[in-house]
Amino acid sequence: MLIIISATSGISISSFLWIRRKKKVLNNLERLIYIEKNEAFEAKNSKAKDIEDAFKELFKSRKIEMQRLQQLENYRRDYIGNVAHELKTPLFSIQGYIETILDDPKIDKETLELFLKKAYKNADRLGQIVNDLDTITKYESGFLQIETERFDILALVNEVIEELEIQAKEKNIQINCHSKSEPYWIEADKSRIRQVLVNLGYNSIKYGNQGGTTNIKLSSTGLKVIVEFADNGIGIPSQHLGRVFERFYRVDKHRNRETGGSGLGLSICKHIIEAHDETIRVMSTEGAGSVFTFTLPCA
Ligand code: ADP
Fold first, then answer.
1. 127-144 per-position pLDDT tens digit
2. pTM for this one?
3. How far is the CA of 199 from the centre of ligand 1 (A)?
4. Of ligand 1's atoms, which has the minimum distance to the CA of residue 264?
5. Which residue is closest in CA terms to ligand 1's atom 11?
6. Which of 133, 198, 236, 243 to mutate to test the pocket of ligand 1 (most atoms within 8 A of CB)?
7. Orientation of helix 190-206 relative to helix 153-170, angle to 10°
8. 229 and which of 41, 51, 187, 292 could share a cystine (Cβ 3.0–4.6 Å)?
């Protein structure tokens, strides 16, 4: 009989100790969640189930946070790699030309002038790349805000066509604008839309054929104005179409080095149009030409 009593009380003491320890562990977990979440933890009577749920939630948000940090880290690494790569080409060219000039004190005037011009062209390109990088960094960090105003996009298109005339003439490319002759009033950030028009227009010349045509078409649905840039240039192979709006993406890396692109122009266009909650698309056939279309809200 005595043995039975002591055995029973032995069980109740150990289970009492177990419950106490469990409660202590739960309290500590509760405190931990509170600190981690930095907000009041709503556990009803510190039930194990509540704490388990809170922990699951905490782990889930930690996992998402870790993935985000990993993405940022990949982005940072890619970005720095790409920037270094972009800057290297013109920088090495400048160094090369200047070194050649310095190494040859008897260099003739004609060669000297040619090398200086080439060095200057590369310095100019370096400046362009730095400007594009500056713009894209601001967009990608959500730093740039758009400032909308009411303006006539037809007038802006005509201004941009005039601006591109010199480059177009060099390749004997004709730029036409097809639209009704009345204003197309839109509500958008004028200077940024100008940049989109310049980038698309300039690309249509860069990737256009000698003696080609760029047709800019404006139309309106009443709610949206649709702007279309169509060229009959070299076109984009279908496997690249889905990637041309990515930053630093180029279809033909060698060719574009020669034409002087940074691989950022279309990516900047996409940021600007999406900042207006609108879309930009491309259709293209290799060897036949490309059509870039975007929408903007009517004023
Ligand atoms: P880039 O500075 O190299 O021109 P973009 O971002 O403007 O960079 O364009 C990305 C790539 O898309 C270009 O390198 C080019 O291969 C292709 N591309 C852009 N516009 C056209 C076009 N109108 N015709 C053919 N290819 C184009």
1. 988 988 888 888 888 777
2. 0.74
3. 9
4. 6
5. 250
6. 236
7. 30
8. 292
